[in-house]
Amino acid sequence: MCDDVGVSESHSHTADEYLMTIWLLAYPVGEYVPSRRGPQPTAAARIADQLGVSRASSGEMLKRLEGEGMVVRGEKKEAILTEKGRIAAMRVVRRHRLVERLLTDVLGYDGAESHEKADGIDAGFDEEMVQRLWEKLGRPERCPHGYPIDARHELRENPTLKPLSKLDAGTEATIVRLAEHDGDLLHFFYDAELLPGIEIEVVAVSADGGAVTIRRGDDQLVLTREQARGLYARPAGVPVVPADTACWGSRGTGAATLSVVGD
Ligand SMILES: [Zn+2]
Fold this sequence. Notes:
Layout: H1 15-26, H2 44-51, H3 55-67, E1 71-73, E2 79-81, H4 83-106, H5 111-121, H6 127-136, H7 151-157, E3 162-163, E4 172-178, H8 183-191, E5 199-205, E6 211-216, E7 219-224, H9 225-229, E8 231-235, H10 255-258
Antiparallel strand pairs: 1-2, 3-8, 4-5, 4-8, 5-6, 6-7
Helix pairs in contact: 1-2, 1-4, 2-3, 4-5, 4-6, 5-8
The chain binds zinc ion.
């Protein structure tokens, strides 16, 4: 399931990259997932946008994932992850995030480079290698961009985070995750040192919502709406959702363990 489909884009996305994208769109930050039964339907056009591919390419891959029982299509051709698809997506995101950590922690790449490079090599890591990697790296809780290694932790945390674009002026918050889908945007976050763990305050939001001014220490920065939408933050006073690392203890990567997500 990891080979290319031969689409015309310079970088052909694999089925796994599609699953990861659908996963992120199906469980958006700020949504209270437990109130829903299962993942949200995801418009095929949004998947194409996120991956920077044509709708034709996206449609072709979705057809393939449908054939593999990973997604079903809704009335408007939107993609909905099946149970099998959810389990596969959770494995893919865990593997991707751990390989990113390998690239930053061991090989010295910066966070912006690690996401892109991980796309090229993560498919080569089987389940056992991923488990060993997790142990060797000291059981990290998050990828370099702040996403939990354990996708169930991600789901529990989602309702506690908001994109900066949705915060009111005067709100203090801690940046927790950086959107990874746009390489230029990710590089901007690293260049501007807008990184997980950084504390900010929203100073002003322009009337049309097109610009968000933030304060970080003594600096003020004006972010575009797009930039502000890619920074996921925990507003001050919202409790931190702890990781349950015991879940991933020795060999805890089986489907039975993973299938509890969203229930
Ligand atoms: Zn990452």
